[in-house]
Write a structure and sequence with these properties.
Length: about 260
């Protein structure tokens, strides 16, 4: 298993203009990450010339593109909005091909209060099927993240994956998005994982409570299912990322180091 970092971890620095996406890639190399997950939100443009520049820059820096990520929502009630998000996801599948990324992190979506959960589920299934087929034809796998709502538990993920039933979709296992007794959900989701996000902390059952994730335990779970992909840091805590991410890297390096 190799360590990567999500551009999302440095969202404050990138959004403020303090850091560019290329700066982030250099920082990944300087910290010691082997890979970088390039989140779609932080691309100033997706013109082919810029995508080529990013790809070449990663090669120059010796940093692999461990994956890309898009912020889709297929659970929206409005059909036109869902179509827009399907097309956005397909565009990012194409961008992933250009960049050489074999996984694209996706979400299911959110069901708002008062909305029909079953109708939302069926909308998500239809959107995922269309995008998974598009991705599979192009050599990309959609990595569906456990991310509240329709994917809050390992059981939720399993039900959705079985309903989509396409080879172009698997799981982006996020260690911090399950709640409470997380290790059972991690173990039940791990067999389907093609990508993994490592958060420093997971959420407790009590409101606003958090606890440190045991990455030695996570490693054993992943090794049991022969997962050999990337472990990508997705940092979300209060301490500034420039200080906290390198420190978290050392924790993960100790847990996952060869």
């Amino acid at each position: 298993m190799r360590l990567s970092c999500c551009a999302y971890s440095y969202r404050k620095e990138i959004q403020s203009g303090e850091m560019t996406l290329l700066d982030f890639i250099t920082l990944c190399r300087e910290i010691g990450f082997e890979g970088a997950e390039l989140t779609s939100y932080y691309f100033p443009t997706t013109e082919r010339v810029y995508l080529n520049e990013v790809k070449r820059y990663c090669h120059k820096e010796g940093v692999l593109i461990s994956g890309t990520a898009v912020g889709n929502n297929f659970a929206q009630v409005d059909a036109a909005a869902r179509r827009q998000h399907i097309e956005m996801t397909q565009n990012w599948i194409d961008n992933s091909v250009i960049l050489g990324a074999t996984t694209l992190r996706v979400f299911a979506g959110y069901v708002k209060a008062g909305e029909d959960r079953e109708a939302a589920f069926q909308n998500v299934v239809a959107g995922m099927q269309e995008c998974a087929e598009y991705a599979w034809e192009r050599g990309v796998t959609l990595a569906l993240e456990n991310h509240d709502g329709l994917t809050q538990t390992a059981q939720d993920l399993s039900v959705l994956l079985n309903a989509v039933n396409r080879p172009g979709i698997a799981v982006n296992l996020d260690t911090g998005n399950f709640i409470g007794e997380i290790y059972g959900d991690i173990a039940n989701s791990a067999p389907f994982a093609v990508a993994c996000h490592a958060k420093e902390k997971a959420r407790g059952v009590e409101p606003n409570s958090k606890f440190d994730v045991d990455y030695h335990r996570v490693r054993r779970v992943l090794e049991d299912v022969n997962y050999r992909g990337f472990i990508a840091v997705e940092y979300e805590e209060e301490e500034p990322a420039p200080v906290a991410v390198p420190a978290f890297f050392k924790i993960l390096k100790e847990a996952f180091g060869k």
